[in-house]
Q: What sequence folds into this?
């Protein structure tokens, strides 16, 4: 029985909690229905955008009742030849009306402290009417992170004021700063390069908490020819994801002196970044040139077979001709 009683109480509490918080209240309300930061994690020096959506979540307000009372006083009089005493008459009329529930947005302001700065319009004034159940058009703020900002989560404040002094908001907005770049890992490479084609395999790892776009791997090295020639376009890499790329590398001559290197360029939001170049060090003394006539070996082999076949068939022809005589 005790268990049933407890379950009954919990059920009642759940029903009470399910009642909409903004229904049938005496005043309209203002709410921040959505806040987004792009990119979701900024790097030091980055510029980002904060988009805010405001709404009036009130769906209905209790009707207001108004009663008007009129009192009339009558003095001593005469009716049908008889005297009437003085008296008083009272009439009451009650009317009901539903409140409009609209708010006037007077001010929306984003407040930030170093290392985050608001570089766009910081304050919007006299934005207009926000009716019950309505959502206002998105408001955008541009922010910039100091170049020397430390990693962490920083709190900004969104200040909202309306025509009703009792209806306002001071909403926290959180901005994440994370300086982790993409990581380039050498997966496979030859011991030495030569004028014959060799392969270099690289792994691109996104250690950041957010996705990055416009990713490409750019090779470099005056002594080498690469394929792809200018860059390997990857595109987007999600948070925690790995992408493998492969380059064909050929030394321009067997006496090359440098080493090929590879760097990754990418966008975090609208901000371009690049990794430190990864140098593929090799043993120059093991470098050998591909045989100059290597490309003609197959042709010589085929011509040799044709020549042998011609001799054999010529011999057979001479032999058969001699027997006919």
A:
């Amino acid at each position: 029985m005790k268990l049933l009683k407890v379950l009954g109480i919990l059920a009642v509490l759940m029903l009470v909690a399910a009642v909409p918080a903004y229904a049938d209240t005496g005043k309209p309300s203002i709410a921040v229905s959505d806040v987004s930061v792009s990119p979701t994690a900024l790097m030091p020096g980055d510029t980002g955008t904060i988009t805010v959506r405001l709404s009036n979540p009130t769906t209905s307000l209790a009707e207001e009742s108004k009663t008007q009372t009129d009192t009339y006083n009558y003095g001593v009089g005469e009716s049908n030849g008889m005297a009437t005493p003085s008296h008083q008459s009272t009439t009451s009329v009650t009317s009901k009306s539903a409140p409009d529930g609209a708010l006037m947005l007077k001010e929306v302001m984003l407040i930030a402290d170093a290392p985050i700065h608001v570089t766009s319009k910081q304050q919007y004034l006299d934005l207009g009417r926000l009716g019950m159940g309505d959502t206002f058009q998105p408001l955008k703020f541009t922010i910039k992170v100091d170049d020397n900002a430390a990693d962490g989560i920083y709190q900004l404040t969104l200040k909202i004021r309306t025509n009703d002094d009792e209806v306002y908001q001071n909403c926290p907005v959180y901005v994440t700063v994370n300086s982790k770049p993409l990581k380039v890992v050498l997966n496979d490479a030859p011991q030495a390069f030569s004028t014959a084609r060799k392969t270099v395999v690289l792994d691109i790892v996104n250690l950041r908490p957010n996705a990055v776009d416009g990713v490409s791997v750019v090779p470099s090295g005056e002594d080498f020819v690469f394929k792809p020639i200018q860059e390997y376009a990857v595109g987007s890499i999600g948070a925690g994801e790995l992408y493998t790329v492969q380059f064909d590398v050929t030394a321009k001559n067997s006496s090359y002196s440098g080493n090929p290197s590879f760097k990754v360029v990418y966008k975090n939001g609208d901000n371009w970044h690049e990794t430190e170049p990864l140098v593929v060090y090799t043993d120059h003394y093991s470098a050998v040139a591909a045989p100059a006539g290597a490309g003609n070996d197959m042709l010589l082999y085929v011509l040799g077979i044709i020549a042998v076949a011609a001799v054999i068939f010529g011999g057979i022809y001479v032999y058969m001709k001699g027997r006919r005589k």
Remarks:
- The CA atoms of residues 110 and 122 lie 6 Å apart.
